Amino acid sequence: xxxxxxxxxxxxxxxxxxxxxxxxxxxxxxxxxxxxxxxxxxxxxxxxxxxxxxxxxxxxxxxxxxxxxxxxxxxxxxxxxxxxxxxxxxxxxxxxxxxxxxxxxxxxxxxxxxxxxxxxxxxxxxxxxxxxxxxxxxxxxxxxxxxxxxxxxxxxxxxxxxxxxxxxxxxxxxxxxxxxxxxxxxxxxxxxxxxxxxxxxxxxxxxxxxxxxxxxxxxxxxxxxxxxxxxxxxxxxxxxxxxxxxxxxxxxxxxxxxxxxxxxxxxxxxxxxxxxxxxxxxxxxxxxxxxxxxxxxxx
Length: 299
Fold this sequence. Notes:
By secondary structure, the chain is mostly helical. The chain is built from twelve helices and two strands, in the order E-H-H-H-H-H-H-H-H-H-H-H-H-E.
């Protein structure tokens, strides 16, 4: 007769060990270590221009409540910047995707655009911000054009590399069945381009956002970048640090709430890959409960 022992509920220590092996714990721990190091090192530095974390957090809380000395509060500043970012990146995506596709399927078009794309990749966003300020002056046009120029080469190169990464067997089959180039791009190439499509979104938006902030610093009188310049001129270091953290939070929210969810939806047909961290966490949980869960055999 075989008697199966009832599994014991995990103890708090076992739960803590399991949680310590998860990616979430590592992220939380890294943030806590960073804040503690900042808090203890800031008073030791030979300058008063690096505020302590609590001072920066107080500034950020006031901005969230729309209590500010700047001309525009947090929501107005970011609203202006996001509108410019959306317009500039939509233009870059609308131009970059077809150019990248055409470069991938035509050697002549690749040779025509290749040097321009390389120059665009090598050009710092700061240079674009300064040039657009000279060309278009202060206003909305300079930031929008800077976003367009900063994001465009990254969109083109990712789409181009995506086309080149399409399995040759698929394109040969399309050619054997005499499928037109337009249908081949739509049904064969686009399906294989989805990972590169998301890479274009991520890298294009990241570089467009950095270019936008620089353009607003040098060639605008509004927006989040201009607000950073305002706090710098006012000698309020907590304002500069606070808005820098707002940029970080915006990037994290965009990644977690938009890109990751959209990626899971688009690639829901692909098999899920169990991460190493999840496997390690499960191994820890199994190890802690193994001794109490083994069945006892009674001959």
